């Protein structure tokens, strides 16, 4: 592998939250701060960059969420990576690109959306960037027909460039790698884009200028744009990477199987937990079943309930519901419980845009 003269850097691009009008989960409007495996998506992105060798990263955020993003990243980012915060000014794409290029300098870099995850390591793509001298390496997620799809996407991406056509092919993942000095060359002659730091548009600009643009397929790309199923899928991906392996345990009347991470301050009694599962600080679980791919956040209370493939956010409670919750998301401070008072009826308090499925 050809070694780079300088260490690779990372740029995490936060999408504009005001474009999304769907239901909000948790206490934030920022899609990048939605939590999977008990951490914000943007912090999982920083984890992935760190594992790929990035020691310096910039987080580029629009003004409406910049302070919130910075506070969260500074408190929950992984150790070992230094983070600088940059402001994405609407309508000033050239200045934004120049600021990013100044941060990156002559180093190669990874651009990564802040609200999505690949679910596979970035290191192999960094190696490809070193082995095959490239100005840009776009990642494309496959859909069962990798070779044909990749060929078609590349054709759509890199054709008609002389006429200024900017195709937006489906299947482009929210991750792109740029070779040494590539962003600097782009910043010297910026072109206006509908989206600041649109990865596809930047690669197309390099191709127009006779740059070397390559593509590689990835197994999957998921980003959160309002569909709870995307959060559950990312949650499953992150939990599958848990290192901890809990052996079968009978203490406190419990039985544990598979990878399970339980915070030392959490209390679990008379319960069955089948991993991968993560349980946050000060959570209380009693007389319950917690099935695979479930995240229980801090200060959650679960009693006499069964859950699997679900996310329960901070300070929520699930009490004696009388059935198993599957593929569900329980928001912050929400209460899900069985009401034994009479007259017997369903009594719901459902917020704007929320979804309740009665089975």
Describe this protein's structure.
This protein is α/β, with parallel strands linked by helices and 359 residues long. The protein has two domains: 9-237, Spore Coat Polysaccharide Biosynthesis Protein SpsA, Chain A, CATH 3.90.550.10; 243-337, UDP N-Acetylglucosamine Acyltransferase, domain 1 (3 Solenoid). It has eight helices and 26 strands. It has helices at 41-51, 66-76, 93-104, 123-131, 146-158, 182-188, 199-208, 228-239, and strands at 9-13, 35-36, 39-40, 56-61, 82-87, 109-113, 116-117, 136-141, 172-178, 213-218, 222-223, 255-257, 260-262, 267-269, 272-274, 277-279, 284-286, 289-290, 294-296, 301-303, 306-308, 311-312, 317-319, 324-326, 329-330, 335-337. The strands form six sheets. A seven-stranded mixed β-sheet has the order 5-4-1-6-9-8-10, with helices on both faces. It has a five-stranded parallel β-sheet with strand order 12-15-18-21-24, with no helix packed on it. Helix 3 packs antiparallel against helix 6 (182-188). The longest helix has 13 residues, at 146-158. It is elongated, with a radius of gyration of 22 Å. The protein starts with 8 loop residues before the first strand and ends in a 22-residue tail after the last strand. The model is unreliable at 144-153 and 158-169 (pLDDT under 50).
């Amino acid at each position: 592998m050809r070694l780079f003269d300088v260490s690779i850097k990372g740029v995490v691009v936060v999408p504009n939250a005001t474009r999304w009008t769907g239901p909000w989960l948790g206490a934030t409007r920022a899609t990048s701060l939605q939590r999977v495996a008990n951490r914000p998506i943007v912090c999982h992105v920083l984890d992935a960059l760190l594992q790929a060798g990035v020691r310096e990263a910039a987080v580029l955020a629009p003004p409406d969420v910049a302070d919130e993003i910075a506070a969260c990243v500074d408190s929950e980012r992984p150790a070992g990576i230094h983070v600088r915060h940059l402001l994405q000014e609407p309508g000033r794409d050239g200045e934004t690109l120049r600021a990013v290029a100044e941060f990156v300098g002559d180093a190669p870099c990874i651009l990564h959306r802040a609200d999505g995850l690949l679910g596979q390591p970035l290191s192999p793509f960094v190696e490809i960037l070193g082995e095959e001298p490239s100005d840009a390496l776009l990642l494309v997620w496959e859909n069962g027909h990798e070779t044909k799809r990749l060929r078609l996407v590349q054709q759509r991406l890199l054709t008609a460039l002389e006429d200024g056509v900017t195709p937006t092919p489906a299947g482009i993942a929210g991750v792109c790698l740029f070779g040494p000095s590539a962003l600097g060359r782009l910043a010297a002659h910026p072109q206006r884009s509908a989206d600041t730091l649109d990865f596809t548009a930047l690669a197309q600009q390099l191709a127009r200028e006779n740059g070397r643009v390559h593509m590689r397929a990835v197994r999957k790309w998921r980003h959160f744009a309002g569909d709870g199923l995307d959060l559950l899928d990312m949650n499953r991906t992150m939990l599958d990477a848990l290192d901890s392996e809990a052996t079968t345990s009978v203490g406190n009347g419990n039985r544990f199987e598979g990878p399970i991470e339980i915070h030392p301050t959490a209390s679990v009694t008379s319960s069955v937990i089948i991993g991968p599962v993560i349980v946050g600080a000060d959570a209380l679980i009693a007389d319950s079943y917690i099935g695979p791919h479930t995240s229980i956040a801090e200060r959650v209370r679960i009693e006499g309930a069964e859950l699997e493939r679900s996310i329960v956010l901070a300070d929520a409670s699930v009490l004696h519901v009388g059935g198993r919750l599957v593929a569900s998301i329980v928001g912050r401070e929400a209460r899900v419980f069985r009401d034994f008072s009479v007259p017997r009826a369903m009594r719901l308090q459902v917020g704007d845009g929320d979804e309740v499925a009665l089975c």
